[in-house]
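ENTRY TYPE: paired fold submission
RECORD: A
CONTENT: sequence, then structure tokens
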Amino acid sequence: MKRQKLLARALNAPQNMRFSELCSLAEAFGYKLDRVKGSHHIFEHERASRPLNIQNVKGKAKPCQVRQLLRDVEEFRLSLEGQS
């Protein structure tokens, strides 16, 4: 799915995001997978002061974690890679 469509889906329906889609969206904003511990996937970004923790719950992303990514994108002024 295209990055813009993933972002629109996260904004409009965070409860319907798949875990893989949320990981792809985080990577599109420049996050890198740092480590995996159990079901927790920890992403780091050089401009973010805190890690992004995402859990896989039966293939779905937790809505609060989708909102956390969106909050961090706004707070740290991140943009989709390839865009200014």
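RECORD: B
CONTENT: sequence, then structure tokens
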Amino acid sequence: MIRALFEKELPLKKIYTTSALALAFSFMVVPAALALVAGQASSKPAAKAAVKPPWVSFNPGSWVIIKSSTLAGNKETNVVETKITLLEKTADKVVLETEMTAGGQTTKTKSDLPVKGYTGALPEGVKVLKTGTGTIAIAGKSVDCETMESSMDLGGTKVLSRTWTSAQVPGSLVKSVTTSDGSQSTAQVIDFKVF
């Protein structure tokens, strides 16, 4: 499920790394974390969607840069840098450009994300363990965040994730730390601009 989402929304010529999958997992869980904070999250779609999709509150030109990597011992590996820019916003959709660089290779893609019918529901199988708040510094700016710890079983592998989200940041993802099979992957915003 995560791999399919990543292939559809964030392709990089079939380069799949643990950090890239962690980033895809983060994109699945971030809307749910926001919805949970607003008291809207459930495993089934809500009758009325009161929660806005993460990019809707920003104007075209807004962007975010996310660095994702895997920690192997004390060494950072599988480094992927992703810049996501909001190109267009209508009543029905937002159009995002994703520029992803990994292993010296860069790919650009565009994707349309629907606005209507958005519920912020948790992906099936995700269990919320704990919620809270915290603060993270991004490029010298202090950002107040909502946090969510969750778990999910993926084909017999238990995936644990802690996600920080903020309405101040385009796309809402601030940081995600995902652990599975003894490896740890991190996706974190390193810079952003709001228009």
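NOTES ON RECORD B: The domain at 2-193 is CATH 2.40.360 (YmcC-like fold). The CA atoms of residues 9 and 56 lie 18 Å apart.
STATUS: closed
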